[in-house]
Amino acid sequence: MKDLSESLQRLTSLRSLSLNFQACKKIKDQGVKNLSEALQRLTSLQSISLIFYGCKEITDRAVKDLSESLQRLSSLQSILLNFGECYKITDQILKNVSECIHRLPSLQSVRLDSSCNEITDQGVKNLSEGLSRLTSLQSLVLNFGGCIGITNQGLKTLSETLQILISLSSINLNFEACEKITNQGVKDLSESLQRLTSLRSINLSFYSCMKVTDKAMNDLSEILHLQDLQIKHHSWFQRHKQPPLRKLNMM
Q1: Quick check: 155 and 189 in contact, CB under 8 A?
Q2: 239 pLDDT exceeds 80?
Q3: Which residue range(s) make up the domain with 60?
Q4: Which of 47, 98, 100, 195 is the most exposed place for a label (fewest CB within 10 A)?
């Protein structure tokens, strides 16, 4: 990681960067810190993708260092951060990421994977505070799959933020196996998404959310201004075959 970081910091005209460290078990906080120090020099970056999926030695400290560097890149328009199955991270990482994107109001695309057992409603609240400033955001992807600490309250907090993001045209939310979410949480989400008249594409997963029923899925399918709706839910998939929209995919 140190050699890579030293090479990267020379590429001051770089506009797009994608690094995939998936399941690199030897990467620790110091390695991410070295990378972070290099990234803050790449002031021309417009798009960045960093995948640390399954890097199980990474902690909140690494994400803090990374976030502090990224927030200095004022030209960033697209950001992808994947910390899925990094089991030493907590709600604190979403606070750090929130503080980062809060300082990047020109972002048009945000993709974040924080699928980890330690993420709770507090983490969703932390992230929502940063998202609320991104009024130019057009595309949002959030993966909370397996975050068993997320409840209806977390979904309501996120929903209240989403309805502010009036430029959103595409949204992808994964709450797979978030077993505490019920129909009420999905109802709050549906009501917020209904208000986003620029929204054209929705991809939602409540698969293995056993307290979510077909009734909640029906509420989602009534968002009439959509062109593309994809829903992943255990019972909905089995019972619905004919799409009521121009394009409706049941996953």
Answers
A1: yes
A2: no
A3: 1-46+56-76
A4: 195
- Same-domain status, 245 and 145: yes
Q: What is the mean pLDDT of the chain?
A: 91
pLDDT band, very low/low/confident/very high, at 219 (cuts 50, 70, 90): confident
Residue 121 lies in a domain: yes
pLDDT bin (cut points 50, 70, 90) of residue 245 is: very low
Same domain, 194 and 72: no
Segment 19-39 mean pLDDT = 96
Strands (E), 28-152: 47-51, 78-82, 109-113, 139-143
Q: How many domains does the chain have?
A: 2
Query: Cα separations (Å) of 96 from 64, 69, 70, 78, 231?
Result: 6, 11, 11, 17, 30
- Tell the burial category of 49 from Cβ atoms under 10 Å away from its Cβ (0-12, 13-18, 19+): middle
Asked if residue 221 and residue 132 are part of one domain, the reply reads yes
Select from 113, 18, 29, 107 the least CA-distant residue to 63: 29
Tell me the CB-side half-sphere exposure of residue 46, using CA atoms within 13 A: 3
Does residue 248 have a pLDDT over 50?
no
In this model, does residue 251 exceed pLDDT 50? no
Note whether 40 and 97 are same-domain residues: no
* Spatial contact of 188 and 157, defined as CB atoms under 8 Å apart: no
